[in-house]
Specification:
With 246 residues, the chain is an all-alpha fold. It is built from 13 helices and two strands; from the N terminus they run ββααααααααααααα. The protein folds into two domains: 18-118, Fumarate Reductase Iron-sulfur Protein, Chain B, domain 2; 127-238, no CATH class. The protein has helices at residues 19-30, 35-38, 47-50, 62-70, 74-80, 93-97, 104-117, 121-127, 131-140, 168-173, 191-204, 206-213, 215-243; strands at 6-7, 17-18.
Length: 246
């Protein structure tokens, strides 16, 4: 059986990629339900790039993304998915400006989904810092909590985060809503809501994507939710026993 040809720059340290892999990645992008809605053509006018905030600071161009997909440049598409697509800020200024009603930002979102599906290293590297947020969400129902706002935990929030010296616990107790008087969560989320959120992730394929990107975190999250489901089932049984006549 003939081996699929490898595509790549012979002078680049980046390993060559099999043609069948490049084709599979592009097919997943093109078959996405939103692909035809986001891409209609291109005048190559450059308005999207000229108004793109990310293009001013990173090696990123919305026009390049559109051109790569329009011309089905498989190698270029795969290369852009290694770094460039993660520079997009998802502000959709490009979509608002494009005379052809393209949405480079929407196309980038599709490419990011496909990068996750194929377990690309770029996706793993970008999403790794969000594991703390995901764990907080799955365990408490909140993405962030007051006790996470520290200079060490959120250095990427800028130098002003270091100025937080207020007694947050005392300040939280002054909030009128009782469900907000906590440091471990932003607000209290009941068990049923957490399970419903997890069920949505199951049905929508989010957990399948998580397993591709971080199998260890997937196992931890699965074990946590199994415990929560058991706990909720026990509570339901207790309620049923309490309400049933003797």
């Amino acid at each position: 059986m003939a081996t699929a040809p490898l595509i790549g720059d012979p002078l680049s340290p980046t390993p060559a990629v099999a043609q069948e892999t490049l084709q599979a990645v592009f097919e997943d992008i093109r078959s996405h339900p939103l692909f035809e809605h986001e891409l209609h053509g291109c005048l190559n006018c450059g308005i999207c790039t000229a108004t793109c905030p990310s293009a001013h600071y990173y090696d990123y161009s919305p026009r390049e993304i559109v051109q790569l997909l329009l011309t089905e440049n498989l190698e270029g598409i795969h290369e852009a998915m290694q770094e460039k697509i993660w520079a997009c800020a998802q502000c959709y200024t490009c979509a608002a400006r494009c005379p052809f009603h393209n949405s480079p930002g929407g196309l980038v979102m599709i490419m990011r989904e496909v990068a996750i599906k194929h377990g690309m290293q770029s996706a793993k590297d970008v999403l790794k810092p969000f594991t703390r947020v995901l764990m907080k969400l799955i365990t408490t129902g909140n993405q962030l909590a007051p006790n996470m706002i520290t200079p060490d935990a959120f250095a990427d929030w800028g130098p002003n985060v270091a100025k937080i010296k207020a007694p947050l616990k005392t300040l939280r107790m002054a909030i009128p809503v009782p469900t907000l008087r906590t440091m471990d969560t932003a607000w209290e989320v009941n068990l049923k809501t957490s399970i419903e959120l997890y069920t949505i992730w199951e049905a929508s394929g989010v957990l399948q994507q998580l397993e591709t990107i971080d199998p260890n975190l997937f196992d931890v999250v699965s074990d946590l939710m199994d415990e929560k489901r058991d706990e909720y089932q026990e509570w339901l049984e207790e309620q049923q026993e309490a309400s049933s006549p003797d």
